[in-house]
Amino acid sequence: MKLIRFICENRFRLFKTLLAYLTFLCLGSALNLLGSSLLDLQIRLNVDFAKVSYLIPFRSAGHILGSASAGFIEQRFNRCLVLSVCNLISGIFLGAAPNFFQFEYAACCLFISGIAHGIMDVLCNTLITDTWKDKCTNWLQALHMSVGIGSLLTPVLCRPFLIPEEGEPNVQRAINETFASPIIEPINIKPTASDVKAQYAFMIIGAISVVIALPLGYVYLKERSYQNKNKNNVQISSDIEPKQEWSPLKANGGIILVVIISHLVYSLEAVIGSLGASFSVKSDLHMDKRTGVLLATVFWSCFSFYRLIFIPLTFVASEVKLLLVNLLFMFIGVVICVPWANTHQICIWIGFIFLGMGLSPIFSAAYAMLAKHITITGKISTIIIIPGVFGESAHPALAATLMANSPISFLYYVGLLGILLVVTFGLLIIYCKLVFRTPNGLQRGIKERLSTLSISRH
């Protein structure tokens, strides 16, 4: 009965929340589309692998611009109206990008869609925060998980549209009366741009974004009608921020560590998610592209759903101890991958599983540690997020360039980022223990401050 009553009393807020989740799911899918189809886009655009990989930083550059302008836009326009327009722009330009045969046109379309993604990234978080106020923490967790689910679904969606590699077995049925066993024939014909079908995956995600724009427009009209009826109501602003309890030196030290963690987490996630499938094909393993996409699916599964295990465990065990276990998972993943994943399939599978589980809660935990001790303002959020998005753009491009010359360099790149992340997060735990004197249970006493979180995709 309580559940039914809650749904009835909050049906409009639940509807807005569902649209935000669907928007973020499409955002997660868009972030991973390029990584899953990069090799096919190389054929489509008729460029080398190093050049086609620059599509990733083009999209990320738009993401950075959109994130930086989201606050300015939100102050002047209704949030749901902006989200509706951004979904429409994202759907149109994301779907159009792979249909071009020239690199420049595809890059421009992805840049424009990236701007929409950056705005959506920020406004969906603020939408959930404003909708549920002090009860927004769990709703935000679900929002962030929808990004991972979208990233997980993308390789599954792309896999049927990927063309086989040259020399990959192709099964054809014999055309005879008895329908005998399939004939296995290797493909020796090099695929051409007209053979590429990966654009259909982009068009499907784009179509979903366009559909989501319609109910968001309805929500905008509904809110506008409600505001017109209540335009004489006086609204009290509660933007006054409490003073920080710590000296600027101590606070800035914690912020710097979280900024570095943000940069490393975003970068490592983007490098593995975008280039992991391509590495499995180009490495000495010579896995086929569909198996490589399956490998990316396993990584995103561990990254997304490990939180379903981690979050309940925080109520029965020390969160610091759980995070130390996560650091151990990351260290094990790095040790297994470097350099054994280049020649042993079992190593690349196990290594990616451990890396996915280890990465999953790291950024949120680091942000929570900081929010426990200092007030997270909009300025601090921007300082934390922008370096992460920049790393999400720069590191995959650099790793792809190195991988084009030597595929095994991808593993050393992942290993370097992973070790730096383990060390930095360990330093943050020690810093909070010694400087902020953090208790073991980070979950206790931070509910109100965590509700101020407005920008976090992880």
From TrEMBL:
Keywords: Membrane, Transmembrane, Transmembrane helix
Pfam families: MFS_1
Highest taxon of source: Eukaryota
Residue runs in coiled coils: none
Residues passing through the membrane, by range: 12-34, 54-73, 80-97, 200-221, 255-279, 291-310, 322-342, 348-370, 382-404, 410-436
Keyword hit for Transmembrane: yes
Organism whose genome encodes this protein: Tetranychus urticae (Two-spotted spider mite)
Keyword rRNA-binding: no
A GO term, aspect molecular function: transmembrane transporter activity
This protein's name: Major facilitator superfamily (MFS) profile domain-containing protein
